[in-house]
Amino acid sequence: MSQSLSAPAGFVRGALVSATTASHPRTAYLTGLRGYAALGVVAIHTGMGGIGSLGEFFASLVNHGKYGVSIFFVLSAYSICLSLAGQKTIRLRPYWMRRISRIIPLYFTLLIVAWLIGYQSYWGDVLNRPHDLTSLLGHFSFYNILDVRYANNALGVEWSIPVEFFFYVFLPGMVLLSRRFWGGLVLLVLCHGCQKVSCFLPSYIEPQSGYQYLEGIWRPFAYVWCFAAGVLACAVATRHTQFKQWFERRPFFAASLGVWLGTLAFYSEVPHAFYSVLCIALIFTAGPANRLSRCLLENRVQLFFGNISFSMYMCHHMLWKLLSPHLSGSSPCKFVQYFIVLCVVSLLTYTLLEYPFFHKKTRGGMQ
Fold first, then answer.
1. Are the beta carbons of 302 and 15 closer than 8 angstroms?
2. For the residues 47-75, what does the mean pLDDT come to?
3. For the range 299-302, what are the long-range contacts, defined as Cβ-Cβ under 8 Å and sequence gap of 24 or more?
4. Tens digit of pLDDT for each residue in 200-255?
5. CA atoms of 349 and 346, how far apart (whole Å)
6. Domain map of the chain by residue range?
7. I want to staple 138 with a disulfide (CB 3.0 to 4.6 A). Which of 150, 258, 357, 366 is the partner?
8. Of 344, 332, 275, 359, which Cα lies nearest the Cα of 64?
């Protein structure tokens, strides 16, 4: 009897340890950055308890949460490039098994849950695309890369998943190109051409609806520079390790944070490319030798948010819409109640869907 109980207990204990530690201590700051990106997206979708009403700076802080997805894309490309750095020939089968096990279990499960309870996002209502069997097939087949009416109609945040999978197809080639100087130049030219592709794709949203701009936001081509930035930054960091280590100093990291705070103070809107560059600056200036970055990015709380960041991102919008009508008290009180539930649900989905399929198998390695 004790042996039958020890296995589940060991599994749960392993999941909890995994959720509060870094899989690779040398790059724990990447996990911390993911946590901040997830918190930013939660802020833009929930208002963070009305914190934006405290002044222009806080309003800008909440609004800048929408750039969290761009940071996710840069971090994804950078960490995947690190995992492939030691391979002279990229083995596609293990590569795709890791990518699928990272995304699909949680993504497909939440889509099915939303379908079973009859839930659909705000955009499902606006674009008149209910989350039915057709929607499920559109998500499972990634057809919603083209028909963006089904890109975000289920969970309210899932548009980024087909974008990510689209670039998974090209990341091995991008990594190989980045290993040579001329290849990096070719990559830049290809990225510029990729941005023009969207002009030739069919439009699925009626012009009179006023929502055609969503095709530019929810299709992959607008984010090519996020993935290119992550790949090229990793190529520099792995080929010139002394260059990366030289920048891992508190003054450089503090300067990067200063630029971010200054941007919040003076600009409510910035190009997505700005956050790609800022993310690379933080990656290059953070590291084990930097006490300030360790304090801000590698503490247990931030590592917890970073490890459950994918679950937080995928669950937060649906939870907010389902819970907010039933929460009591002031706006800050409602947000605290919601955030506690979000952390509990995210930890559960991490334990049941992320840890067994991916993290348990990759502890000690890069994602």
1. no
2. 88
3. 299/32, 300/20, 300/21, 302/31, 302/32, 302/35, 302/36
4. 788 888 888 889 989 989 999 989 999 999 999 999 999 888 888 889 999 999 99
5. 5
6. 31-362
7. 150
8. 275
**Residue located via tokens 């990272």:** 102
Average confidence (pLDDT) over 277-292: 92
Q: State residue 366's pLDDT score.
A: 44
Give Dmax (Cα) for the chain: 66
